[in-house]
Design a protein that fits this description.
Strand 1, helix 1 and strand 2 form a beta-alpha-beta unit. Helix content is 30%, strand content 25%. The chain has a 7-stranded parallel sheet, sandwiched between helices. A 5-stranded mixed sheet has the order 8-9-7-10-11, covered by helices on one side. It binds NADPH dihydro-nicotinamide-adenine-dinucleotide phosphate and the ligand O=C(O)C1=N[C@H](C(=O)O)C[C@H](O)C1. NADPH dihydro-nicotinamide-adenine-dinucleotide phosphate (NDP) binds next to helix 1. The site of NADPH dihydro-nicotinamide-adenine-dinucleotide phosphate has 25 residues, from helix 1. Homotetramer.
């Protein structure tokens, strides 16, 4: 049995993870962390991780970068592995995650769907073949409640394209203040927010006479929640500290 804590349990993703866990006979939700205690829930909810005194095998976090310090402190002091799915971390927070991963197992991915992780590979390969003759533009679309922009996935896609290119690219997030023609070494990243769009990422390779588009659309939050529970099951069985990612999990989706 995997004893799991959901951090951000009252949010959209926290509730999607709860729904997935309920259908998994080998997973038990032992607690939730969130800012406000929740009313009728099947498990106790703590505003601060430090208040949880029980036993757990793994924490799955879909909350906010603001939750990170307390979570890392909790996971390190209790030696509990952490699946970090939250996006929008600052560079210094990413460094703190790297440092903590030298002491405990941490799994981090800005996108827990299998499809996006296939897309990352396709983008890397397309960039390597097409090269600087094709302009790379990334367009991400999300619901109107999303707080961070660009999405963590858009940044991962930009890094994947950059891996395939020979020149170091410059990321351009808005063109309104730049009065100049697009430069070959740029990767443009545009964010759209509206309605209930779950998560949509499009990578354009725009050549002079043709455009290639690679696109992933999430049709429900279940795809992220189910990837996160797979990651939790994987991490709960790992003793060695380290920073793990979807690349370590591909076999679990077959
Ligand atoms: N890796 C992936 O595949 C995916 C990642 N995400 C990311 O997950 C995160 C959550 O997304 P979503 O569920 O839509 O967001 P929600 O706002 O619906 O849920 C976040 C929850 O976390 C709570 N929270 C905020 N700050 C803290 C804190 N300091 N400590 C504890 N809890 C806190 C919020 O409380 P309150 O509402 O009171 O602020 C809320 O209940 C985002 O960063 C999003 O980008 C989302 C989908 C997929
Ligand atoms: O906030 C969301 O909803 C999502 N966030 C992630 C991101 O920032 O990439 C992943 C997914 O697209 C949904």
């Amino acid at each position: 049995m995997v004893r799991l804590i959901i951090s951000g349990c009252n949010g959209r993703m926290g509730r999607a993870v709860e729904a997935i866990c309920t259908a998994e006979p080998d997973v038990e939700i032992v607690a939730g962390f969130d800012l406000l205690g929740a009313g009728e829930r099947e498990f106790p909810v703590f505003a601060s991780p430090a208040d949880f005194r029980g036993e757990a095998d793994v924490v799955v976090d879909f909350s906010s970068p603001a939750a990170l310090n307390a979570l890392l402190h909790f996971a390190r002091s209790r030696r509990i592995p952490l699946v970090l799915c939250t996006t929008g971390y600052l560079p210094e927070q990413l460094s703190a995650i790297d440092a903590a991963a030298r002491q405990i197992p941490i799994f981090r991915s800005a996108n827990m769907s299998f499809g996006v992780n296939v897309l990352l590979d396709l983008v890397r390969r397309a960039a390597a073949v097409l090269g600087e003759r094709y302009d790379v533009e990334i367009v991400e679309r999300h619901h109107n409640k999303k707080l961070d922009a660009p999405s963590g996935t858009a940044l991962m896609l930009a890094e994947a394209a950059a891996d395939g290119l020979s020149d170091t690219p410059e990321y351009v997030y808005e063109r309104q203040s730049i009065r100049r023609a697009r430069q070959a070494h740029e990767i443009g990243i545009s964010s759209v927010r509206g309605g209930g769009i779950v998560g949509d990422h499009e990578v354009l390779f725009a050549g002079r006479d043709e455009v290639i588009e690679l696109r992933h659309s999430a049709l429900s939050r279940e795809v992220f929640a189910s990837g996160a529970v797979k990651a939790a099951r994987f991490l709960a069985g790992i003793d060695a500290p380290g920073l793990y990612s979807m690349a370590d999990l591909v076999g679990q989706f077959k």
